[in-house]
Structure formats: structure tokens, C-alpha cells
Amino acid sequence: MSNLIARFVKDESGATAIEYGLIAALIALAIMVGASQLGGALNAKFVAIAGAVNTGTAP
């Protein structure tokens, strides 16, 4: 029984999978935040362009 526990304590494959999962989650979070920021900036620019087109002035 103690041999089984010792093997379980030394096994690091689960820790590696968890680390890769955390890295993937952080990358996904960074992509979502970046896409949100880019989307907001694009929306503001298109609103400004639409306003300029409607009023006939340069943005």
C-alpha cells in the first residue's frame, strides 16, 4: 500500500496537464480581452464614420 502512495506522490503527469490547462486558459483570456478592446475601438470608429457620413463632415 505504501508503494502505491509513493508512486502517486511521485507522478507528475497530472500536474503537467493542469499547468498546460492553466496556460491555455490564460491565453484564451488574453485573446478575449484583446478582441473586446479591438471590437470597442472598431465600433467607436465606425460610429464616428457613420456620423460624419450623415452630417457630411470629415471625421
From TrEMBL:
Parts of the chain that traverse the membrane: 20-42
One Pfam family here: Flp_Fap
UniProt keyword terms in alphabetical order: Membrane, Transmembrane, Transmembrane helix
InterPro entries noted in UniProt: Flp_Fap
Protein name as it appears in the record: Flp family type IVb pilin
